[in-house]
Write a structure and sequence with these properties.
This protein is mainly beta. It is built from 15 helices and 92 strands. Strands 78, 80, 85, 86, 87, 89, 90 and 92 form an eight-stranded antiparallel sheet that branches. A seven-stranded antiparallel sheet has the order 84-83-82-81-88-79-91, with no helix packed on it. It has a six-stranded mixed sheet with strand order 65-68-69-61-75-74. The chain is extended, with a radius of gyration of 54 Å.
Length: 1506
């Protein structure tokens, strides 16, 4: 920069340097501008150039050499005030800082506060105007005492660099009279002698106003409305009440008097209080003070002697021979009146000493008013006031404001302002809080004003020599310190003063010319092309970039501050091949220029062009040799048309590839003859031909275009005509012979090969048809009269011959229905209707001690009344009425008198109802009026929602619902046969099986029948068990029903992309509006439950807690040992001979499977998910399996078009330790990870085989093994890779699919599975242990067990059983010894145990009678009464531990003692008990089933069906 010298030399050098730089820049700009104007004149793109994007170099520039800092010129003169309690946003004052620079070149000033982190915002400043408003409400009074606030405002300009100034301002908070005076006491009570002379003091009252100034001065008065006001007067200044006249009231009289205190504020506020003054006998004198301080006591605020008395008061009781007095220092309502015990009183005989009780602080409280009260034994009192004044001491050190730094430009003359520092002294008086400033180091090149704190420079600075200074400032107050004797209080702070840079150097581009090669002509908008950079050694200079020339069509844009050049508009090599840009770098004063050359790369951006469209006429059904059409296209990107165009031709429509093919020469050939005629042919075939350049390579930049080839087909007579009459044709019975219908026909061939047609009875027509019908021309006529009761319809074969060459004859069937006329009387009839009433609501009937269910079905039409009538079109002639009368009709049903339709009313209870009706008919004169009786047997059975939710399903093909429920030749329907077969299959009674949904589903191709059913023992069987067992007998069931099964377990997502493009899940849609199927003698009203597809896998399921868990907020609180998010039991073990079955996951576009495997076998099947049987009607073979081969995991996945095999040969899994296996199924890839290893060496990755993309399975998930022969299943499907049938040994846990945790502890069906892996862990421990050692351990365990058993038997014999019922010795279902003293038994409702009973409800009357008689055989055991009796006995037992435990009522089996259950049915003996059904109750009842059920030889195995 500049060398130091005299002031004149510096200015001269600065002037000469500025002239030189300005001259050089001007010369450079002139040359640069001239160069670009010449270039533009000769540019071939001149007409399209936008002059607005060019900034002429000769444009005037504002060159500001000196960046002045903003200055608060009135900082010391600000005296702002604001009243307390003003709303937020109240205007306070406006600050202003001057900056001499122009607004656009550093002269724009913005304002903001300087604050410490976390400091509450009390004011707001407008950044543009400097207007300051409140951001909070202030309180001048107690307890806040906000009397002043300090703010520091920083003014910043927009120069380079940015310069600042700061100003610290004190804002006074003015008091508002917003607090009324407050009396020092809540109430005043005093006694006065009857003979007290007038003018004597009676009592003293005192009040304080926490406001300030006049607002705190109070005046006292007595309420003139008081009845006894005339007896007293009050000093308005000090509140002393005097007796105004002689008392003429008897002792005991209480004067009624009120006092008022009012402040001197505007407006004035006041308070009032009632005074209680009682007259006492004349001989009773009040005490009096004989020594009190007569002047205020002055204490310095740092006074801290808590032992020495501050003041002494003495008094006399004025009672002869009784000097005892009670002293009290009255606690006032404010701090000034000793609210917080700042002073304390210590009485001693007739004296009391006032001492300091708390520290003083002048800055908080400057004076105190103490009231001392004395009282003698006459309960007479006197008071005196002691004033204490607090004197300020210098006990606060000056503190600097938040501003910590400042700056000054380099090369500024001495005396330039730098910053202002401010310090504040919290002392309350000017004698202690006046501050002076000085430099900590006098050698610093700065000086400071000792009064204002303004820092100015002593020298001119050069930033290149030194860019900052740390300056220590000391602030000292004006009196001797109370903290450091002999010295003043002083605070110090180090301030950072930065030397700011000036812009005195030009920017320089790093290159004269930048070249960007091969910018693709199809580059995206905003794509980066290149980046230019200019360097400016001035740190404060911000360089901006612009394009000043060569930017034709605004093709590019440059980022102002980064120099990045990006694409702004579409480029085209065929239009412009290269751009030459001129770019400018500007730092606000100086500038520099550079060239940028951008070369555009030619790309394949033009698709092939066909020479023409093509039309050709050919004959249908004829195969031509050679090309029927030759197409030709060229590539516009290849300039030479004679060069090879490298174009590939193909057919666009996939379905046309069966008939046509095209080669790369454009030769279109027929591979099959084309059909002209409907319904599959067209008179004109549109063939779309696609041409692709670059050889049509996939993944290249190949472009494509299409053209059409129209093939017009000439007709040949290759289609026979057919009838087009609307069918059926109705001809009524008893009509004489006549014309039935005019026959019409159609031929798909052209007109020359079609009509006119000739019609005749085909030779295949039977003799019966020929004898009754005749065709002449196109008229079908009858030869006889018909009787519908003999035959209802005829299928007449009609031969139709066209007029083509050669002539063709077709045969169509004409359906003629003989219409009914009512010509037969009716006879009595009977019909049966079965109704399932869905989703009952339950309530407990306290009278019958039983559960009642009421269904939710609304009023529902359930079927018509049936009468035996040969006529079936005579409903209009019939009328239907109740028998024996309308008044005696059933309350649950209605009958429509015209149609005979029976309606079941909402709320109809379960039961069987016999309905009787009177049916009348009249069709004079053929059928005279007559009537018959018709009966309808209606059976209604409620079915709970659990049965529907856990139902199995079968889809039959080509059968209707009516055919399914109507009785066949043997008197039973297909529905009845299915019902009976399912009961045998599930080894349960027919009452426990319900076939409740029969629904016809019609599609374009087939007619399906969907049937849903449920079965139960104690709980309802899960659907996986129901469906899988049906699959095992599918052929037998088809033979029994003579119907073909299309699918077991109805799955609308099974065919990929048939219902959904991506994810698909099955949703069971339930409705309380029933589905009805009507036939003559049988009607069925079932549950509306059908499966529908939902095209998503992302469904938020409601929170359901399993296994006794309790919902809490958004999660489940689970019993101990259950770790799943919904209290699932997350593990299951196997021992090489078992498996467990669970629900299959949905078909998701992405599937994520995780499981933890602890294996003790090297070769075994971990899980299998896929079909259980090959179904020839449904070619779906998707499956997934995970197995171990030599200890390594192997995954097989088949999306339906081939099996993909993944194996991991790195991580050994069969080591008895837990291993996490993750499987990721995606459209284009399948991944497997072991133990979260994502390295390429231990990660398995493969692509699915074939075009299918999603796993769609129709079978259950099976863990630990498979219930079927997978080898045989693989042969029927033709799988390339076959899962193993070797069962798993070990533990499987934490099985999830897309974050859904499986409840492994409750499989739908299983064999030899071990929930929670208890036996598996025992097996794991035994591995690797010597046999002799294991035998020794077992012998020790047996000995310990025998000893333990002996102790238990001995203790049981010693117990006092006399106080318990003798049945308890053997009749234990729970561990009764865990039950307590009975204080909380009523908190658990044992009546819920009645839900165990699943049989039909007994008749009300019969059931009521049976309660007083001996037990009915087969009736439900009274478990509630039995347990209540046992509980009451235990409650009376003094030896039982005094706590209640009901866990065994809720969890059967675990921890209970073994014993006979005979008492549960007290009318039977042990020989009559049968507990075979216990094996169907699930794993929790396995112990009871082993104790009381069939032996292993007699019990049917659950897996026997497979």
């Amino acid at each position: 920069m500049f060398v130091r010298g005299t002031e004149g030399g510096i200015l001269a050098a600065l002037f000469l340097y500025s002239l030189a730089v300005a001259s050089a820049q001007y010369t450079k700009v002139r040359e640069h501008t001239s160069h670009h104007i010449t270039r533009l004149r000769h540019s071939r793109h001149l007409d399209g150039y936008h002059t607005a994007s060019f900034i002429p170099a000769t444009a005037p520039k504002l060159a500001v050499k000196d960046n002045h800092k903003p200055l608060f010129t009135e900082c010391l003169n600000y005296r702002p005030t604001v009243k307390e309690d003003q709303p937020v946003g109240t205007y306070v004052f406006t600050v202003h800082a001057e900056d001499r620079d122009p607004p656009e070149m550093g002269g724009t000033v913005t304002y903001k506060f300087v604050s410490t982190p976390g400091e509450k915002e009390r004011f707001r400043v407008d950044p543009e105007t400097g207007s300051i408003t409140t951001a909070d409400m202030f309180d001048h009074d107690e307890p806040s005492r906000e009397k002043e606030a300090y703010i520091t405002v920083r003014a910043s300009d927009n120069g380079q660099p940015q310069l600042d100034d700061a100003c610290t301002i004190k804002i006074l908070i003015e008091d508002v009279n917003d607090n009324p005076p407050v009396f020092d006491k809540v109430s005043y009570s005093e006694s006065v002698p009857q003979d007290l002379p007038s003018g004597r003091e009676v009592m003293r009252i005192s009040a304080t106003d926490i406001d300030d100034g006049n607002n705190s001065i109070v005046h006292y008065s007595l309420d003139s409305n008081s009845p006894d006001q005339a007896y007293f007067s009050i000093d308005p200044a000090n509140g002393v009440i005097f007796l105004n006249k002689t008392i003429d009231k008897p002792p005991g009289y209480k004067f009624k008097l009120s006092a008022i205190v009012k402040d001197m504020g505007t407006p004035s506020l006041q308070s009032s209080i009632t005074l209680d003054i009682q007259v006492v006998e004349s001989n009773k004198k009040s005490p009096s003070f004989i020594e009190v301080p007569d002047e205020p006591i002055r204490l310095k605020e740092n006074y801290s002697d808590f032992n020495t008395p501050i003041a002494t008061v003495r008094a006399v009781s004025n009672i002869p021979e009784e000097k005892k007095l009670q002293f009290e220092l009255v606690q006032g309502q404010t701090e000034q009146t000793n609210k917080w015990h700042t002073f304390v009183l210590e009485p001693e005989a007739d004296s009391a000493y006032i001492k300091l009780g708390n520290h003083l602080d002048y800055e908080k409280i400057t004076d105190y008013t103490l009231t001392v009260r004395i009282q003698n034994n006459y309960k007479l009192a006197a008071e005196t006031i002691i004033q204490i004044e607090v004197e300020d001491v210098n006990d606060n050190i000056p503190i600097f404001s938040e501003i910590r730094s400042g700056s000054v430009l380099e090369n500024e003359p001495p005396g330039t302002p730098v910053m202002q520092v401010r310090a504040f002294d919290a002392d309350g008086t000017s004698a202690n809080n006046q501050i002076t400033y000085e430099l900590g180091d006098p050698s610093d090149p700065f000086e400071i004003d000792k009064t204002t704190g303004n820092i100015t420079t002593l020298n001119m600075f050069d930033r290149e020599e030194r860019n900052f200074y740390n300056v220590k400032i000391i602030a000292t107050d004006n009196s001797e310190s109370a903290l450091i004797p002999g010295k003043h209080n002083a605070g110090q702070q180090v301030f950072l003063i930065e030397i700011a840079d000036k812009n005195d150097n030009p920017p320089r581009f790093t290159q004269d010319t930048y070249v960007a090669e091969s910018i693709a002509e199809n580059a995206n908008i905003n794509e980066l092309v290149t980046e230019v950079s200019a360097v400016d050694i001035d740190t404060a200079s911000v360089v901006t970039y612009s394009i000043v020339a060569g930017n034709t069509y605004d093709a590019f844009v440059i980022r102002n501050f980064t120099g990045e050049i990006r694409v702004n508009n579409e480029l085209d090599y065929e239009n412009i091949t290269s751009y030459n840009l001129d770019v400018r770098a500007f730092d606000g004063i100086y500038e520099d220029y550079a060239k940028v050359i951008i070369n555009i790369e030619n790309l394949n951006d033009n698709p092939p062009v066909f020479l023409a469209n093509y039309t050709k006429t050919i004959e249908e059904e004829k195969l031509y040799e050679g090309c029927i059409v030759k197409v030709e296209a060229y590539d516009p990107d290849i300039k030479d048309r004679s060069a090879p165009q490298n174009i590939v031709y193909s057919l666009v429509k996939h379905e046309q590839k069966e008939f046509l093919q095209i080669d790369n020469d454009g030769c279109l050939r027929l591979t099959k003859p084309l059909n002209r005629d409907q319904p599959l042919g067209f008179t004109k075939w549109q063939i779309l031909i696609m041409a692709a350049d670059h050889g049509g390579r996939l993944g290249s930049d190949s472009l494509r275009s299409t053209t059409e080839v129209i093939l017009e087909l000439t007709d040949i007579n290759d289609n026979a005509p057919f009838l087009t009459n609307t069918q059926p044709v109705i001809w009524y019975e008893n009509e004489p012979p006549g014309h039935v219908v005019a026959l019409t026909a159609k031929d798909y061939d052209s007109a020359e090969n079609g009509p006119p047609f000739t019609f005749a009875l085909n030779e295949s027509a039977s003799f019966d048809i020929r004898s009754k019908f005749h065709i002449q021309g196109n008229i079908l006529s009858t030869l006889v009269s018909f009787d519908r009761e003999q035959r209802k319809e005829y299928k007449i074969p009609v031969a139709i011959t066209d007029s083509g060459t050669p002539r063709l004859t077709g045969v169509s069937i004409l359906h003629v229905v003989i219409g009914d006329k009512n010509d037969n009387p009716m006879a009595p009839g009977h019909s049966d209707i079965f109704v399932y009433n869905y989703k009952p609501e339950t309530y407990f009937n306290e009278i019958l001690y039983s559960w009642r269910y009421y269904g939710e079905a609304p009023d529902t039409e359930i079927g018509r009344v049936y009468v035996d009538d040969p006529d079936d079109w005579d409903l209009a002639d019939k009328r239907f009425m109740w028998l024996p009368s309308y008044e005696q009709r059933s309350p649950y049903f209605d009958i429509h008198s015209n149609t005979g339709m029976i309606t079941m009313k909402e709320g109809t209870p379960n039961g069987t109802y016999l309905l009787r009706f009177n049916v009348t008919e009249e069709n004079e004169p053929i059928v005279p009026f007559h009537w018959v009786e018709a009966t309808v047997n209606v059976t209604i059975k409620e079915i709970p929602e659990e049965a529907v939710d856990k139902s199995g399903s079968i889809r039959f093909v080509n059968i209707t619902a009516e055919e399914f429920i109507v009785p066949e030749m043997d008197g039973t329907s297909k529905k009845d046969k299915l019902h009976r077969t399912l009961a045998r299959l599930y080894n349960t009674s027919m009452d426990n099986v319900d076939v409740f949904t029969v629904f016809t589903k019609t599609t374009v191709k087939d007619v399906f029948l969907d049937v849903r059913f449920s079965a139960h023992g104690s709980p309802y069987y899960p659907p996986e068990k129901l469906d899988s067992m049906v699959i095992g007998i599918q052929e037998k069931l088809e033979e029994e029903l003579q119907s073909k099964i299309y699918m077991v377990k109805i799955d609308e997502c099974l065919i990929e992309k048939e219902q959904c493009e991506d994810a698909c899940r099955n949703v069971l849609m339930k409705n309380n509006v029933p589905l009805s199927v009507y036939t003559n003698t049988t009607s069925f009203v079932g549950v509306s439950a059908r499966v529908e597809s939902e095209c998503t896998c992302d469904v938020v399921e409601p929170l359901v807690c399993l296994n006794g868990g309790t919902p809490f907020a958004d999660k489940c609180e689970c019993p101990e040992g259950l770790s799943g998010p919904h209290c699932e039991q997350t593990s299951i073990g196997f021992h090489g001979d078992g498996w467990a079955m669970y629900a299959a996951p949905p078909a998701c576009q992405e599937g994520h499977v995780t499981l933890t495997v602890t294996s003790h076998s090297s070769n075994s099947l971990i899980f299998y998910l896929g079909p259980l049987k090959h179904n020839p009607l449904l070619e779906v073979q998707d499956f997934m399996s995970l197995e171990l081969v030599e200890g390594f995991p192997v995954l097989l996945v088949n999306y339906g078009t081939g099996t993909t095999r993944l194996n991991n040969s790195v991580v050994q899994v069969a080591d008895g330790k837990p291993h996490l296996i993750e499987i990721v199924l995606m459209r284009s890839s399948i991944e497997m990870f072991v133990d979260r290893c994502k390295l390429s060496t231990c990660m398995s990755l493969a692509a699915p085989t074939g075009p299918r993309e999603i796993l769609n399975v129709n079978g259950p998930l099976q863990l630990g093994g498979a219930s079927i022969d997978l080898q045989n299943l693989a042969r029927t499907f033709g799988w390339k890779h076959v899962p193993t049938n070797q069962n798993f040994v070990g533990c499987i846990s934490n099985f999830t699919y897309n974050d859904f945790m499986y409840n492994l502890g409750e499989p739908s069906l299983h064999r030899n599975a071990d929930p929670s892996c208890q036996r598996s862990m025992f097996t794991a421990v035994t591995f690797g242990i010597d046999t002799n050692f294991l035998v020794a351990i077992l012998v020790c365990i047996v000995i310990l067990a025998i000893l333990l058993l002996a102790v238990v038997v001995h203790r049981r014999r010693a117990d006092a059983w006399a106080e318990k019922e003798l049945d308890d010795i053997r009749e234990n279902i729970i561990a009764y010894e865990d039950e307590g003293g009975g204080e909380g038994d009523a908190g658990y409702d044992l009546h819920v145990l009645r839900q165990m009973y699943d049989g039909p409800l007994p008749d009300t009357d019969t059931f009521m009678q049976s309660r007083g008689e001996s037990c009915l055989v087969g009736a439900a055991p009274d478990i509630s009464g039995f347990l209540d009796d046992k509980k009451s006995v235990l409650d009376r037992d003094p030896d039982i531990t005094p706590y209640d435990d009901v866990r065994h009522y809720a969890y059967e089996g675990d921890g209970n003692t073994s014993g006979s259950l005979s008492s549960l049915a007290s009318c039977t003996d042990d020989g009559d008990l049968k507990f075979n059904y216990l094996s169907t109750f699930g794993p929790r009842f396995r112990k009871l089933a082993d104790m009381y059920g069939d032996s292993d030889d007699e019990r049917p195995h659950e897996e026997s069906w497979c």
